[in-house]
Specification:
It is built from 8 helices and no strands. With 236 residues, it is mainly alpha-helical. It has a domain of 158 residues: MetI-like fold (Orthogonal Bundle), CATH 1.10.3720.10.
Amino acid sequence: MTALAPLGFGPEGWGAALLLATGMTLAVSVCAFFAGLVFGTMGAAAKLSGGPVLRSVAGAYTTILRGIPDLLVIYLFYFGGSAAMTQIATWLGGSGFFGLNGFMVGVLAVGIVSGAYQTEVLRGAYSAIPRGEIEAARVAGMGPALMLRRITGPLALRTALPGMGNVWQMVLKESALISVTGLVDLMRQTEVAAGSTRLPFLFYATAACLYLVLTTISATLFRGAERSTRRGMARA
């Protein structure tokens, strides 16, 4: 028990700080995932029904964001954005360095990256819908909104969920990179605790276990959602 004392919840323990940091990691990941869902929906719509210009923009978006390291995207948003805001503040008569909020930057950076992957997941899910289903809905007089709610939305969701689950797992792990902005997430708090106590193995192993708990619970929830959407389908 003495060896695990630094993980306790007393005055000398880091347990409470690690749990709070885990909550921050989860908050960043959830916000980034849904931000990515917005970007992904717009990207998929552009690729599926946009004109040549929109399709080219969406294609460049997915190619570039999936082709450069995620950490570089965070650096560009945080340091590049902070430098730009500092310059704007200087033009307006301000002085000093203007640093962007780490949470906001992390959500936006990871969200934009995940949006590039979600674009392809959603595009593929929509393309997998049998054309006969859509044609039948049109013949029945369904408008775009009603068709989305009753036909294309449920069918696309059924196909997209496995891919969306993979993107979520990626977002959850990529959130560790946001610690470079100074945001006290699980990774950052682990670094501080390991440096303060000189017990790096204990704290990094604990962080690994906490990430594993989050990913395991997430995988279980997504599997449950997949089973729910496939309920009533004929089994092969």
